[in-house]
Design goal:
single chain; 39% helix; seven-stranded parallel sheet
């Protein structure tokens, strides 16, 4: 299957590293022009800007003003917006402490970063998005359906992202805009830095011990490949779906 995004314009938030950076690369390799929203650029992102139509833009896309800036710059440069990938996210700052110690500020931080960033970027994008043919992919988490009390606020905020996405899919379907979520499990990113052994056999033991049936951690480009598929016309009949990519960690039917 050949996926071509030639002529498409995309915005990716939280694009400086990890899964976000991999999504920018995969979209660009498929032919899309990509505005990569970051609070601070990285050498890796700047390197992508040379061979591809990748344009780093410094903005806090988690805010209403920053999201509006990114979308308006995209439309100004490309004259259109076809794809929005909401990838901004962060996990609990005090993992493992449980529910009781979490303050209102702790909860507000998780909801602002993980949920309201999606709300604001989507709101900014909708008036400019291609109709029909627009695609929104929200990066959720397997913890949306597999709660983890060590990261209780994160899990709750990601569940809200998944629920919001399904509601948006229903509302926007008549306009021909599709909305789906991608829910990664443990992935080789900075969040897991120092906890994934370099030795493949040792990695397999760790992965199996935490319940990953395939015996390894996901790679960012694997999450990115799924995202590109959902953004493409190959997925034109898919909306309101939640795709867990976790190597078989989530065992339940949902």
């Amino acid at each position: 299957m050949n996926i071509s995004l030639d002529g498409k314009a995309a915005v990716v938030t939280g694009a400086s590293r990890g899964i976000g950076l991999a999504i920018v690369k995969a979209l660009a390799e498929s032919g899309a022009k990509v505005f990569a929203a970051v609070r601070q650029t990285t050498d890796e992102l700047e390197k992508l800007a040379a061979p591809y139509d990748v344009y780093p833009v410094i903005a806090n896309a988690a805010t209403a003003e920053g999201a509006r800036q990114v979308v308006e710059e995209t439309v100004r440069r490309f004259g259109r917006l076809d794809i929005l990938v909401n990838n901004i996210g962060a996990t609990d700052t005090r993992p493992g402490e449980g529910f009781q110690p979490l303050t209102d500020d702790d909860w507000n931080d998780m909801l602002e970063i993980n949920l309201m960033s999606v709300v604001r970027a989507t709101r900014a994008a909708l008036s400019h998005m291609s109709r029909p043919g627009g695609a929104i992919i929200n990066i959720s988490s397997m913890n949306a359906v597999m709660p983890n009390p060590r990261i209780i606020a994160y899990s709750a905020s990601k569940a809200a992202v998944t629920n919001l996405s399904k509601n948006l899919a229903l509302e926007l379907a008549p306009a021909g805009i599709r909305v789906n979520t991608v829910a990664p499990g443990p992935t080789r990113t900075a969040m897991w830095e120092g906890r994934i052994p370099e030795d493949p056999q040792a990695e397999k033991e760790v992965a199996l011990n935490i319940g990953i049936a395939l015996g390894r951690f996901a790679e960012p480009h694997e999450v990115a490949n799924l995202t590109v598929f959902l953004a493409s016309d190959q997925a034109a009949m898919i909306t309101g779906c939640d795709y867990i990519i976790d190597g078989g960690l989530v065992k339940t039917i949902h």
